[in-house]
């Protein structure tokens, strides 16, 4: 079992930056096995479906981004700390949403939320002037 806890959300003006963190823990999680998890970030705005934002493959080999955040957001992972980050720059009002961290063990990197096994509770990001 894996538990995910997000932090780092808040309110920021357009053009600002935030860094989200997702700390993973669990009885079966070890430094070695953390490498085996695909880690992803999703977001959900009011009245909208949960959408893919970014993901990093097993062993941190490859990163993936939605077109709407490519070039502005960066996903990274610190295996030693069992933590995944989402650096968000040049934030826009349309980035306002609850951001969720997700994980699964897979050789591929899915973009559908339904394919992820583990979820955090979410952290609110609000971009407004």
Structure notes:
The chain has one helix at about 30-35; strands spanning about 5, 10, 20-25, 35-45, 50-55, 65, 75-80, 85-90, 95-105, 120, 125. The longest helix has 4 residues, at about 30-35. The chain has one helix and eleven strands, in the order βββαββββββββ. The strands form two sheets. Strands 2, 4, 5, 6, 9, 10 and 11 form a seven-stranded mixed beta sheet that branches. The chain has about 130 residues and is mainly beta.
Instruction: Report the helical percentage.
Output: under 10%
Structural class, from secondary structure content?
mainly beta
* Beta-strand percent range: over 45%
Q: How many strands in all?
A: 11
| Apparent shape | globular
Tally of DSSP helical segments: 1
Q: Order of SSEs, N→C? A: EEEHEEEEEEEE
Query: Mind summarizing the main beta sheet?
Result: 7 strands, mixed
Radius of gyration: 14 Å
Low confidence ranges: none
N→C terminal distance: 40 Å
Instruction: Report the average pLDDT across residues.
Output: 93
Q: Nutshell version of this structure?
A:
The protein is mainly β and 129 residues long. Helices cover 3% and strands 47% of the residues.
Which helices and strands appear, and what pairs or packs with what?
Blueprint: E1 3-7, E2 10-12, E3 18-25, H1 31-34, E4 37-44, E5 51-56, E6 63-65, E7 73-78, E8 83-88, E9 97-105, E10 118-119, E11 123-127
Parallel strand pairs: 2-11
Antiparallel strand pairs: 1-3, 3-8, 4-5, 4-9, 5-6, 7-8, 9-10, 9-11
Keywords, separated by commas or semicolons:
129 residues, mainly beta, four-stranded antiparallel beta sheet, 1 helix, 3% helix
């Amino acid at each position: 079992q894996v538990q995910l806890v997000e932090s780092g959300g808040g309110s920021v003006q357009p053009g600002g930056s935030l860094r989200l963190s997702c700390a993973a823990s669990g009885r079966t999680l070890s430094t070695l096995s953390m490498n085996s998890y695909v880690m992803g970030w999703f977001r959900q705005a009011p009245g909208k479906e949960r959408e893919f934002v970014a993901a990093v493959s097993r062993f941190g080999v490859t990163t993936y981004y939605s077109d709407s955040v490519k070039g502005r957001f960066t996903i990274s992972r610190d295996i030693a700390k069992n933590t995944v980050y989402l650096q968000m720059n040049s934030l826009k009002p349309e980035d306002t949403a609850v951001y969720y961290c997700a994980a699964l063990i897979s050789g591929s990197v899915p973009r559908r939320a339904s394919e992820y096994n583990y979820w955090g509770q979410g952290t609110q990001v609000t971009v407004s002037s």
